[in-house]
C-alpha cells in the first residue's frame, strides 16, 4: 500500500472529524486512558463510531450487544444511541481492558445503560442465552477474529427478524481474498463470511473502508426471518 494513499485517507478522516463532529473529551479520554494503560490502539475511528451509532439508531435499538470492549470507545458511541432505558451488553475477555472501559463508561455518564461482562465471549454468550434475555436489536462483532464464525451463529440466535449485525475488520488490507493465507485472523473472517453466505436467515453485504485505520471493511448482516 502506497504510504501517500494511507496518509490521504487519514487526512480525510481528520477532515470529517473537523467538519462534522463536535469535540468530545470523553471519547478522547477513553482512547488516552487505553494508551496509558498499554492497550492496543485498535478502536474504531470516529467516523466509524458515528456510523455504528447511526445504524443502531436507525433500527431503533434499545438492546445492543458488543463483542470486544477494549477501552470502551465504540461502546460509548453505541450506548449514546440508546434511549435512557436501553441496554448495551458488552463483552471483554481481558480484565485490564474492562477496567479501563468501566471508567470510560462512568465518565461518559452511560454506565447505567451498560452491562459489561468480563470473560471469553463464547462463555458469556452461552450465559446470556441461559438468562433468556430479550433479543438484541443491534450486534457489533469486534472480538477475536478466529471465533467470528461462532459469533455469527450466536448473534443470530440472540437476534430477532430485523436485527442488524455488524462485524469489524473483515477486509484486512485486502488479505481476505487470500484463500491460502496463514494468518488466523484472515482465515477466521473467511470462515465467518462463508457462514454468512450459507445462512438461510440473513441478507448481507460487505462495505470496504479506508481512513485513519487504513484499509479494512465491515460486514453488514440483516437478520431477515
Ligand atoms: N470495539 C472496540 C475494539 C475492540 S478490540 C472499539 O472499537 O473501541 C478487540 C477486543 O476484543 C480486545 O479488547 C480483546 O481483548 C477482546 N477479545 C479478544 N478475544 C476475546 C474473547 N474471546 N472474548 C471477548 N473479548 C475478546
Ligand atoms: C485489531 C483488532 C480490531 O478489532 C481492529 O479494529 C483492528 C486491529 C487487531 O487485533 O490487530
Ligand atoms: Mg475492530
Walkthrough of the structure:
This protein has 225 residues and is an alpha/beta fold. Helix content is 44%, strand content 20%. It has a seven-stranded mixed beta sheet, with helices on both faces. Strand 2, helix 5 and strand 3 form a beta-alpha-beta unit. The longest helix has 18 residues. It is globular. The protein starts with a helix and ends with a strand.
Question: In a nutshell, what does this entry contain?
Answer:
This protein is of the alpha/beta class and 225 residues long. The protein is built from eight helices and seven strands, in the order αααβαβαβαβαβαββ.
Going by CATH, the homologous superfamily would be Vaccinia Virus protein VP39
Largest sheet features: 7 strands, mixed
Return the CATH topology: Rossmann fold
Report strand %. Answer: 15-25%
Q: Which runs of at least 5 residues are low in confidence (pLDDT < 50)?
A: none
Task: List the SSEs and their pairings.
Blueprint: H1 3-20, H2 25-36, H3 46-58, E1 63-67, H4 73-79, E2 87-92, H5 95-107, E3 114-118, H6 121-130, E4 138-141, H7 148-157, E5 164-167, H8 184-198, E6 202-211, E7 214-223
Parallel strand pairs: 1-2, 1-4, 2-3, 4-5
Antiparallel strand pairs: 5-7, 6-7
The structure holds S-adenosyl-L-homocysteine (SAH), 3,4-dihydroxybenzoic acid and magnesium ion.
Amino acid at each position: 500500500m502506497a504510504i501517500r494513499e494511507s496518509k490521504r485517507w487519514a487526512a480525510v478522516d481528520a477532515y470529517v472529524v473537523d467538519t462534522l463532529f463536535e469535540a468530545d473529551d470523553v471519547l478522547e479520554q477513553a482512547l488516552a486512558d487505553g494508551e496509558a494503560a498499554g492497550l492496543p490502539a485498535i478502536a474504531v475511528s470516529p467516523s466509524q463510531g458515528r456510523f455504528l451509532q447511526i445504524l443502531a439508531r436507525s433500527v431503533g435499538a434499545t438492546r445492543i450487544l458488543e463483542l470486544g470492549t477494549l477501552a470502551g470507545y465504540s461502546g460509548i458511541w453505541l450506548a449514546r444511541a440508546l434511549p435512557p432505558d436501553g441496554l448495551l451488553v458488552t463483552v471483554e475477555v481481558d480484565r485490564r481492558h474492562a477496567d479501563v472501559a468501566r471508567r470510560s463508561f462512568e465518565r461518559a455518564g452511560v454506565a447505567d445503560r451498560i452491562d459489561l461482562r468480563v470473560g471469553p465471549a463464547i462463555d458469556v454468550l452461552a450465559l446470556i442465552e441461559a438468562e433468556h434475555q430479550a433479543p438484541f436489536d443491534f450486534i457489533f462483532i469486534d472480538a477475536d477474529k478466529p471465533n467470528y464464525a461462532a459469533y455469527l451463529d450466536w448473534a443470530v440466535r440472540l437476534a430477532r427478524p430485523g436485527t442488524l449485525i455488524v462485524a469489524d475488520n473483515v477486509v484486512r488490507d485486502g488479505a481476505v481474498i487470500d484463500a491460502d493465507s496463514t494468518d488466523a485472523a484472515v482465515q477466521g473472517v473467511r470462515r465467518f463470511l462463508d457462514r454468512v453466505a450459507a445462512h438461510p436467515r440473513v441478507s448481507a453485504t460487505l462495505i470496504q473502508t479506508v481512513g485513519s485505520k487504513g484499509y479494512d471493511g465491515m460486514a453488514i448482516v440483516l437478520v431477515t426471518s
